[in-house]
Amino acid sequence: MNPSESQPAIETHNLRKVFGDKVAVDDLSLTVERGEVFGFLGPNGAGKTTSVKMLLSLISPTSGEGRLFGAPLSDPDIRSQVGFLPEHFRFHDWLTAVEFMQLHANLYHIPRDQAGKRISGLIELVNLTPHVDKKLKAFSKGMLQRIGLAQALLNRPALVILDEPTSGLDPVGRRLVRDIIHDLRGQGTTVFLNSHLLSEVEITCDRVAFIKNGSILRVSKLQTLMEGELTVDIRARNLAPPLIAGLSRWTENARLDGEHLSLTLPGEADLPEINRFLVENGADVYSMRPQHISLEDLFIKIVGTDGGL
After folding, report:
1. Which helix (H) or strand (E) holds 58?
2. How far apart are CA 119 and CA 151, in angstroms?
3. From CA 232, how far away is CA 241, in angstroms rounded?
4. N or C: less crowded end of the chain, CB within 10 Å?
5. Cβ(136)–Cβ(96) under 8 Å?
6. Measured between alpha carbons, how far is 42 from 209 in angstroms, rounded to an integer?
7. Closest CA to 127 of 141, 138, 117, 142
8. Closest residue by Cα to residue 84 from 204, 192, 185, 224
9. 229 near 206, Cβ under 8 Å?
C-alpha cells in the first residue's frame, strides 16, 4: 500500500488513553503534514511516549481516532511504511550489526538481493562500517543508537518516528543524526521527533507541538515562534524610575539592573521609537542588543517550570 499523497502523514482527533484511574493522554489532536520534520515537546510524564505508542498501534487508545496517511492506525499495510527508533531499545546483543539488520530485513520481507546492498549502505550512513562484524553487546550506547537509526530506515519508510534519537550521542553523532534528518526531509520523508535536546529541535524542526498533562497546549511553525517574541538588552545611564514606567506603552516586562535594562517585545518594529524615547528623556544609551527568545525560554513560558523534559 502506498501512502496517499493527499492525506497528512499523521492525523489524530481527541485521542485519549487511560490506564486504570490515570489519564496518560487526555486529548491528542494534531496534524503532521507530509515531508515535514515535526517536534513533539513536553515535560516528563506529559504523555509523549504513550502518544507515540498509540501512533504505532503498540497500545490501543481508550477513545478518539488517528490515521497515518489516511489509513487507520491499526492498518498493517500502512504500518509497514513507518520506521521507529525507540528511546529505550533492547536489541539482540548476541547478533552482529549485519545480522541484526538482516533480521529486520527478513521481518520486512525485503528480498535478499536488495537487502544486502541496502544494509551496507545504511551501516555506512551511520558510520559503523568498521564494526559490521562486531556483536551488539560490545557496542557503546552511541553505537547502539546509530544502528537503531539504521534499522529505522531499512524499509525506506514514508514516516520515521524518532524517540530521543540523540540521547546517547556525542556532538559528532548528533551532527550525523541532524544531517540524516535533513536528508530525509529532502527526500520527502516525514519525521516525527521527540527530543529533550531543544537545541537540536531548534535547528531541525519545521513545526513543534507542546504537550502537558496529556493535552496539546500549542502547535506552531518553529520559525514563527522564534521570530516572534524578542528580548532586548539595553545598556544606558540615567534610567530614572519614571522613564522606566513610561516604557509601559511598548511592554509590561521591563527590568532594570544597574545600567542594564531588559525588555520583552513582540518584535523589532518598536526599537527605533524606544531608543528615541530614552534619549529624549535624558538617558545616555550606549548599546541596544535585540535577541530572539530561545526555544528553551519558549518551552518554559508555554509549558511552565513544574517538570523537566
Report:
1. none
2. 9
3. 18
4. N
5. yes
6. 8
7. 142
8. 192
9. no
